[in-house]
Design goal:
Elements (H helix, E strand, L loop, with lengths): L6 H9 L6 H13 L8 H15 L3 E5 L5 H7 L7 E6 L2 H13 L6 E5 L2 H7 L4 E6 L6 H8 L3 E10 L15 H14 L4 E6 L5 E6 L1
Parallel strand pairs: 1-2, 1-4, 2-3, 4-5
Antiparallel strand pairs: 5-7, 6-7
Helix pairs in contact: 3-4
Length: 213
Amino acid sequence: MSFIVPEEIEAYAEAHTTPPTPLLAELAEETKATLDSPQMLTGPIEGRFLELLVHALAPKRVLELGTYSGYSSISMAAGLPEGGRIDTCEFDETHAEVAQRYIGRSPYADRITVHLGPALETIEKLEGEFDFVFVDADKENYVNYYEALLPRLADGGLMALDNTLWSGRVLDGSDDSEGTRGIKAINDRIASDERVTSVMLTVRDGVTLVRRR
């Protein structure tokens, strides 16, 4: 997967972003060396972006769909206020094991709960509202996740959806893959949804921020 921003600009931006902690740097190395689809790693730029979003929102409850190896969970936890918590959902047992191991070594082990299983089932089991939601899971279900979670955003809450530019494949009319259809569907749904205000950002592979009106 190639990202929207040219590699040299991405490298410049990373060089001018606060570096990751040693634990996150180690996690990134293990992810790239041992897990499938290492391009899914959140990385230092988006990790800091998420941390600062969480810091600005000061959410008490954060929900993440798509833990992968735990980089984004740990990054967001660094921005949590006192008493804040993260519930993160992961379908793949191997990914969840790596994430749990690094979360356990982080200063935030008591603030992050990893839920193994289909995200829609986990959403149904969790009660209450969420102050911040980060969606970075299977793209074909993005519309389902959006519709399930939008009513459960707290007043003033924010939803962030990752990969919404999909390496530019959103502009490729010949790409009819399931993932591309899913991303196009959620982008069109959000753009036409009068319930929300949104912005699509060209951070890495595209991040869309949504709030209820």
